[in-house]
Write a structure and sequence with these properties.
0% strand, 3 helices
Length: 85
């Protein structure tokens, strides 16, 4: 999960505006959903392609955590009145 925060920070560095934009929580949560989906694909690949790997159990736990955060972020977006994909 820490890798997602670092990736998001690197993306943000590349698009520094010359003004301070208004904070929009919905945009942050929507962006995080995209990053969670990407992380889910990576860990799912480990579980599907290498089920006997020593990392399969860890990847399964990570998938559950990602799925929990995805549900939470979707709920937050719904509460904010934002469209959830």
């Amino acid at each position: 999960m820490h890798g997602i925060a670092e990736l998001d920070a690197r993306v943000a560095e590349g698009r520094q505006p010359s003004y301070t934009p208004r904070y929009e929580a919905a945009r942050d949560f929507a962006g995080s959903l995209g990053l969670l989906a990407e992380a889910h694909r990576y860990f799912a690949r480990v579980v599907e392609r290498h089920p006997d790997s020593v990392w399969a159990a860890d990847a399964t736990l990570k998938l559950r955590r990602i799925e929990r955060f995805t549900r939470l972020y979707r709920k937050i977006l719904s509460n904010l009145g934002a469209a959830v994909e």
